[in-house]
Each structure stands twice: as structure tokens, then as C-alpha cells.
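pasting UDP-N-acetylmuramoyl-L-alanyl-D-glutamate--2,6-diaminopimelate ligase for the record, 484 residues
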Amino acid sequence: MRLSELLALGDLDPSIGNIEIAGLSADSRVVSEGFAFFAIPGHAGDGLAFVGDAKARGAAVVIAERAAECALPLIVVPDVRAAVARAAARFYPRQPETIVAVTGTSGKTSVVAFLRQIWAAMGHEAASLGTVGVVDSKGAHYGALTTPGPVELHKTLNELAAGGVTHLAMEASSLGVDQRRLDGVRLAAAGFTNFSRDHLDHHRDMEDYFAAKMRLFDTLLQPGQTAVIDADSDVATRVAAVCNTRGLSVFGVGAKGEAIVLKDARPHALATSLDISHAGKNYKIELPLAGAFQTSNALVAAGLAIASGDDPARVFAALDHLKGAPGRLELVGARNGAPVFVDYAHKPDALEKVIATLRPLTKGRLIVVFGCGGDRDKGKRALMGEIAVRAADVAIVTDDNPRSEDPALIRAAIIDGAKGAGPAQIIEIADRGEAISQAVAGLCAGDALVVAGKGHETGQIVGNRILPFSDHEAVTKALQEHSS
Ligand SMILES: CC(=O)N[C@H]1[C@@H](OP(=O)(O)OP(=O)(O)OC[C@H]2O[C@@H](n3ccc(=O)[nH]c3=O)[C@H](O)[C@@H]2O)O[C@H](CO)[C@@H](O)[C@@H]1O[C@H](C)C(=O)N[C@@H](C)C(=O)N[C@H](CCC(=O)O)C(=O)O
Ligand SMILES: Nc1ncnc2c1ncn2[C@@H]1O[C@H](COP(=O)(O)OP(=O)(O)OP(=O)(O)O)[C@@H](O)[C@H]1O
Ligand SMILES: N[C@H](CCC[C@H](N)C(=O)O)C(=O)O
Ligand SMILES: [Mg+2]
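structre below
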């Protein structure tokens, strides 16, 4: 592809515009012969500092936001992150016909997994993309980011479409939206789950975080398209106002929803019976998932399936067969009849919700094993400690990806927040495997254990090393060791 086509800039000097481009990247380390290198002014450094590296690897041209002394032809654009996203969409032209993006602090991975399952039940060739990777009818492939960078994203979209996928549900993280990773994606609709504290290590404050999410609705969705909103979220009215201003069609779901109305939800064991209405008709659903939050997620997914053209009665029937996303309130086993769950709650609201879900199902003690990630929002540590001792009976504080930080200090910050904040016993066990083993060993009939924070993850990040570790495997091992 010629550079003028890649950038959609017809007025480039032909000596530059006619350069044949073999690929594109914003990371000099993956540049090859004939590539266009997009120099992003980032958080840690400026891509312009890596032009020499890009040239040595064969880059043909640099695209940046400012003019600079440069060993290669340089083109200045106003927003280089948007430019690389749009260029990637041209270089990898195919996309599944129906792409839906889901944002919100919690529930994105669950909603895209549910939507993929609903679409598959409708007979569509469906896929999902997000924190647990790309999942389609052929299997799952893990990736590093929830919303991949634009070059990887468009390569993936191209491959999915070429492989016959017509329907894709993808997660839109606030960072992904903010950093223009989705700017070249042809969206059909978008979903919003909820809003609470997260990523305050990146966003200046909660308003900045909210605005980042709203860019999906006020900029990326086009007027006339549909926004499916969990109407029971604290910020649903604000989100709907943003959507109305943009001329979107608002589809509210939940007890306060107007498009799918949740009339009654009766939890029993690990399932929930729902009475809902939509377009003047009533439906009964046996959702095979526990937790009010999973009901909300399932209704957002159903709304997105209906908004993208599927038959409501068939969509609601599909909810009877939903499976949870891996590591989201996943029942791994039991000891002395006490269930053991693995969950991905690594932020305050999620921890609160998962404990609140298990509390009514637990006659004995509710035990939670958790930690907080290093190099992430420090403010959430004390909050999560406080929630655990207020809402659970035993809080076992352990490590969760300490990264470059001293894990003992992370645990101390959690315990500082926990002390005196509630009745639960606090136990500190640094080694996560040992914490899980001791928690399992102590389970009595009537108890329940939730190991929170790592969900589907398969490693413990200590310094720059990723040590193999899975909560699921650690629980299974502990259940075997402490059987009888
Ligand atoms: C903190 C953050 O969001 N970083 C993202 C951001 O990097 P940055 O702006 O800080 O870039 P930088 O490190 O300053 O470097 C500037 C530029 O120089 C380039 N570079 C750098 C070194 C080099 O040798 N050569 C080179 O060309 C970099 O590729 C970059 O383009 O822009 C990059 C290009 O798009 C992203 O790859 C990078 O994601 C990093 C890998 C990351 O870990 N991001 C995480 C925090 C993230 O995005 N998480 C979200 C949310 C998760 C969730 O809620 O589920 C996600 O969507 O996964
Ligand atoms: N609708 C919801 N409201 C509150 N908490 C939720 C909701 N859905 C899921 N959770 C909690 O958040 C955890 C993460 O859920 P999920 O992976 O679906 O969300 P996510 O938005 O993709 O999160 P992340 O940004 O961390 O990838 C779950 O394990 C559960 O504890
Ligand atoms: N996408 C989130 C996941 C956090 C998971 C938790 N296990 C941790 O490491 O803090 C992040 O990178 O902030
Ligand atoms: Mg996710």
C-alpha cells in the first residue's frame, strides 16, 4: 500500500506519498523493512527518540505530532495515536460485519463472553476480544491487553473476518478509548455496565476517568446507533444524557430500565430466576449464574444482541444456557461441602459485590483471600482492606502481582485500611499458594471461600519476572491435599 493511501493524505509530495509501505508500527522494536513508524509522545518516553532504532530495522518513513531533526522522511499529523489507528484500519481492511464494544469499570469481560454465547446460539459465527484474549468457536488465544493496540487489533479483526467471524463483542478499556486504540473500528453499537474507582494511577481523577469512557459514546459511536446502558448503575442518567446529546438511541436495561425491564430476580443456590419484560411481552429466564451483578451483565449482553438485530425471544431463551467467563465467580470445587470460588475482583466495588453475592448463600464463615497489584492505584489498597473486614468473616491478605513494589508494603497498606474497620479476622500470608492452602484447609461445612483478584491469570508478576501461578490450579491442588 502506498503511504498516501495508508494515511488518506492525497496532497503528499509524490516522492513521499508513493513510498510503498510494507507494514506499520508505533513500536520501533517490531519495525521491519519498509515499515511506517508512528512516533507516539507517550507516558514514559517519546517515540521520536526511537527513530534511529526504527531506521536501523528498515523503517521507510516517520509519522509524528511535531517536526524534528530526523534521519527519515517525517510527516506531521495532529493526533498520531488516531493516525496509527486509522492507518491500521486501512492496512488491515477487513472487520467482522457487526462489532459491538463494551465499556464500564466492571463486567466488560463477562458481557462480551455472554454476547458471544448468545450470538453463537443465534447461529452467528461469533467471537469476543478482551482481558481473556480472543475467543471464537475454534478456541481461545490470550493477549496482553484488554483492548489491544491498534495495529495488533486491526490485524486480529482482519484475521477474524477472513476466518468467517461475522459478530465480534470487544472490551473497550478506558485507556484503550482514551489512547485512540478503537478509532478505526467500525462499531455497530456499544454497551455501558457501571462506573466505580479503577485506574486512578492513569486517570487524573474520577471525572477524567469518566470522560475517557464517554468518548466511546460521544465520539466513536455515530448518531443513530444504539447505546445499551445498565440503567441501575449510579451514573446511568449521566451516560444517557451524553448519548442523547450525540443523537444515539438509548436502550436501558435493569430494574430501572425501559427497554428490558427487570421485574423480579430470585436467587437460589448458584442460579437466578428472572422475570423481565421487553416491548410489551413478559419473559421468564433461568439464569445459571449467581449474583445480581451477573444478572446486570446478562441483560446488557441481551440488549446488545437485540440492538444488533437478533430476535428478542430467542435472545432471552439463550440466557438460560450462559456460562460465566473464566475466573469470574467460578466454582472450582468444595471441601467439607464448603464451595471455593475464584474471582477477578481486584478493585473495591467488585470485591464488595462478590462478597455481597456469596453472603446470603453462606451459613457459616465467608473467607476471602486477596491482595492488591503493585504499580497500580495505591488508594484502592486501604479501601479493599476495609471492605473485606466489614463484609467477610476472615480476610487473608496475600500478594497479587507486586511488580516493582515491596509486597510487604502493599500488604501493610491493605491491613492499615482493614484494622478496626470491621469484625473479620485478618490474617497475613505473603505466599499466595500458602494463603490458598491454609484457607482451604480451614474450611468447615457451611463456609464459603473466594480467592479474589487474579481470576484467569496464569502468572504472578514479581519484579520483571512472571512466575507461573494460577489461583485455579492452587485451589485444585489444595483441595486434593486437604481431601478427606
Ligand atoms: C500506560 C499505558 O497505557 N501505556 C500504553 C501507551 O504507552 P505509553 O504512551 O506510555 O508509551 P511509552 O512507553 O511512553 O513509549 C512511547 C512510544 O515509544 C515506543 N517505543 C518505546 C520503546 C522502544 O524501544 N521503542 C519504541 O518505539 C512505544 O511503543 C510508544 O509508542 O501506549 C502504548 C501504545 O499504544 C501502549 O502499548 C501502552 O500500553 C502498555 C503496554 C500497558 O501495559 N497498558 C496497560 C496499563 C493498559 O492499557 N491496560 C488497559 C486496561 C486494562 C483493564 O481495565 O482491563 C488495557 O486495555 O489493557
Ligand atoms: N456488573 C458488575 N458490577 C460489579 N462488579 C462486577 C460486575 N461484573 C463483574 N463484577 C466483578 O468484577 C470482576 C471482573 O469482572 P469482569 O472481568 O467481567 O469485568 P471487567 O470490566 O472486564 O474487568 P477488568 O477491567 O478488570 O478486565 C468479577 O470477577 C466480579 O468480581
Ligand atoms: N487490567 C488490570 C488487571 C489487574 C489484575 C490484578 N491481578 C493486578 O495485577 O492488579 C490492571 O492491569 O490493572
Ligand atoms: Mg476485562
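The mean pLDDT is 97.
Residues 146, 346, 373, 376, 400-401, 453-454, 457 surround 2,6-diaminopimelic acid (ligand 3) (CB under 6 Å).
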